[in-house]
Amino acid sequence: MDPDLAPPEFDTGVAHPARVYDYWLGGKDNYAADRALGDAIIAAMPSTRSSARGNRAFLGRAVRYLAAEAGIRQFLDIGAGIPTAGNTHEVAQAIAPGSRIVSVDNDPIVGAHARALMTGHPAGATLFLQADLRDPGRILADPGLRATLDLGQPVALMLVAVLHFLPETDDPRGIVAELLAALPSGSYLTISNITADFDPDSAAVAQAAGQRSGVTYVPRSQAEVAAFFAGLDLVDPGVVPLLAWRPDDGPPTDPRAVPSYAAMGRKP
Fold this sequence. Notes:
Blueprint: H1 17-24, H2 32-44, H3 48-69, E1 74-78, H4 88-95, E2 100-105, H5 108-117, E3 125-130, H6 136-141, H7 143-148, E4 156-160, H8 172-181, E5 188-194, H9 200-212, H10 222-227, E6 233-234, E7 240-241, E8 260-266
Parallel strand pairs: 1-2, 1-4, 2-3, 4-5
Antiparallel strand pairs: 5-8, 6-8, 7-8
């Protein structure tokens, strides 16, 4: 990607998780710093590229469940990343064209691409909001969000592969609780988070590589991921390895091949 095309406030020399993820997925919207960090993490965890694809596939399965089985028509996708095939709005509106989606990310490059590429079905609505997960009050108060989503009706809150960028000092459980408090009964929470449970040594090396580039990775245990769902009704099969969450093609040969947990819960 040409650095001259970046917004003026953007530093192309600093890696950003959304663009590292884009690199792992084979995208072109990334810079040398993103590729350097991506390669360093791949060196520590050779399964990283397949893990990124696994997370994208999990997002698709989760959105299909929410739209087709749970009847959800509103989605708040925070940490949405650069729009690629199989994004939340594409999957939801393919099932229910009237679905309304707000995608949130704190990277201005993501915003530039989202505004250009996020064209939804005319029966529904799509909006990109540049904001930070660490400021849930600003997200919830945004006039565009309020105009796109009816917070009096159920909303699917999607936090896929984003909470592991928040250390405990950011109070991630408090952030999730604040977001859920603004949503009505019948809303859903969907999460995936990397874990060190399956391969602690590789996870530690990947964490160190991220820290050297200024990117925080916080692996969480199964119990720590489950804590985000306190007070919610977990959707079967509960908090499980990501590949084992409602797989399309039967039980995976190695459910731990992607070092992440995934889960979904319904607000009673």
